[in-house]
């Protein structure tokens, strides 16, 4: 009896997780409740707010979120987003995108989800903000970690949950130029003062190679989220230079019609800008020695509705396999790799077309997108579309894991 109990808990295992957005705190929750000693280090000075709505769909997401004990709370904080409408330059509707298609079974703001996971774990998990891993040395028995600010420490395992541009991945698996597949578009997100007075609906306006979307997710009459997508060659600016991002956006969206001037005015004064390449992460392996990757760091896809679900499922499987293996990372990491790889790839496939969806390259392509979505929005094709995304989101057979 004692033997089994010992093998099924993670008591004493010390784990460092890099990144406190979705994957990091989700993994921390799954590990800490099984007795692991978990530290999460996040580069930002505090939990980052903002970001767009992310959604969950299908039975696998439901099982995972239920087992984490956050299914009800996600519903309590869901956006209840209604229709998203493609409009012309005058704001007249061209196509309705049903919420079923855009928002999954349940949708929540990324910042709200991160906050919920943080609140659930903060008493049992050590959070260190404003710092980052600097070096990792795995000597086979543990990992020596130095930080940019804090004192060096040693952990049994280190997990990279630090997103598309993961520092952990860079340190252990090589430069990101080898792993990040650029998909020819950039995306920016920030808050605007709800210029259209939207109430839980969204509008999308496209011109060749660029698109502006405005969505009100929470019914706040004074605030909405703007999402800008543009087609581009790879930019060479500093990834963390917000001033440079603002200049690029102002330039690329100059002269664009519809509500764009109001959106650009809000951009000039925002202090919370999300800006990134639309890209996918493809690595040969997700684990090496005592280090593993979870979420966007290992199988990210910037946007497209599948990244957050994949991150949460990945966290569930990684922690579950560690518990099943009684903390033996060799067995657990091999199982995690084998179980998550095809699933993650399937999720990335569904997300691959998001740039051209928002910002088709020509007027003709814009018209054919509109035609296609008019068809897709009609029954029974809407059902087909739902099944397609649900199949990817559910493309993994979950094992029973010790609680
Ligand atoms: C502020 C923000 C806004 C976002 N907005 C959108 C959006 O509008 N649309 C969209 O599709 N996706 C967005 N994303 C990405 C989305 O959250 C992910 O695709 C998905 O939820 C998977 O999350 P993740 O936890 O694996 O990675 P991410 O959400 O990217 O989180 C990575 C975390 O690691 C931290 N980090 C990075 N480097 C280091 C380091 N060296 N040391 C410590 N910590 C580090 C980051 O600050 C971040 O908190 C956003 C992410 C963030 C952080």
TrEMBL record:
It comes from the Bacteria. Coiled coil: none annotated. Residues 14-344 form the FAD-binding domain. Pfam families: FAD_binding_3. This is FAD-dependent oxidoreductase.
